[in-house]
């Protein structure tokens, strides 16, 4: 993991940030880093208890945060959250559409994708991201300023060689993440005239429930990993795939988000940045 964010300036002091899917995993790490950098963070998740717990943790550590239940597939839910935030803080400066799923229930047992996998990855990863940006961008356009940082994946880049092919069951997820990257390009073109920057971070291999599900799938469906623990599959992926041979943490992703959300990235828009220890090179 990179140096602690505690050494970084509070360059987001006075900003208001919304992070979706921040009840756990990468979203929670992003929320913690943005709060450390001085932003007031709105922690949203479909799991209300998890959202509140992340927010309480931030507050215990001296930050400013509040937790909300928000389902990114439901525009009304997003609009209600955005209205509450604007009523309380007067604005939203930073929006991080992070909520994501790897597949529909039962994914860990599958060797192929199902219609349900397509529907769920499309609804949450793509439409959910679009819904979030559209609800928040309407407000950012009025203020003629804002930063949107989507969370895509290195899996949305060109596929790697045969040694790391993960199986057909991951195809809907990988396609959805390629869509996140293209949406970032197109939205940046669309919103540039309103002084809104749109970028995305492509995480590499982070030990969260999504990666645990991928590892469990490998154990359940391939001879190669039969009898392994999910964590052993993950550790071997880190060693095999990453030139730097280190795992990425939720905070590592948060540091890249904080950069895109800062004034230092004022001239950067429409970009996709890998945070992946070199595992995919474009
Ligand atoms: N873990 C990795 O290695 C990795 C790699 C690349 C990209 N990503 C991306 O990072 C993001 C976060 O994933 P993670 O690894 O932290 O997984 P995670 O499963 O730990 O977290 C996902 C969060 O999204 C929430 N969520 C799911 N559906 C939602 C909905 N409809 N509305 C609101 N919230 C919802 C979940 O409750 C959960 O808190 C995802 O977009 C994922 O695709 C993860």
Give the key terms.
282 residues, alpha/beta, Rossmann fold, seven-stranded parallel β-sheet, globular, disordered N terminus, binds nicotinamide-adenine-dinucleotide
Short description:
The protein is 45% helix and 13% strand. By secondary structure, the chain is an alpha/beta fold.
Would you kindly provide a written description of the structure presented here, covering whatever features stand out?
The chain is of the alpha/beta class. It has one domain (14-206, 249-274): 3-Layer(aba) Sandwich (Rossmann fold). It has eight helices and seven strands, in the order E-H-E-H-E-H-E-H-E-H-E-H-H-H-E. A seven-stranded parallel sheet has the order 3-2-1-4-5-6-7, sandwiched between helices. Helix 2 (48-60) links the parallel strand 2 (40-45) and strand 3. Helix 1 (25-36) runs parallel beside helix 2 (48-60). The longest helix is centred in the middle third of the chain and has 29 residues, at 115-143. The chain starts with 15 loop residues before the first strand and ends in a 7-residue tail after the last strand. The structure holds nicotinamide-adenine-dinucleotide.
Outline: globular
Strand content: 5-15%
For the record, the count of structural domains works out to 1
Bound molecules: nicotinamide-adenine-dinucleotide
Q: Which CATH class applies here? A: Alpha Beta
Number of strands: 7
CATH architecture: 3-Layer(aba) Sandwich
Widest beta sheet: strand line-up: 3-2-1-4-5-6-7
Rg over alpha carbons = 18 Å
Helical/strand content category? alpha/beta
Average pLDDT reading: 95
Order of helices and strands: EHEHEHEHEHEHHHE
Helical proportion, percent range: 40-55%
Number of helices: 8
CATH topology: Rossmann fold
Low-confidence residue ranges: 1-5
Largest sheet: 7 strands, parallel
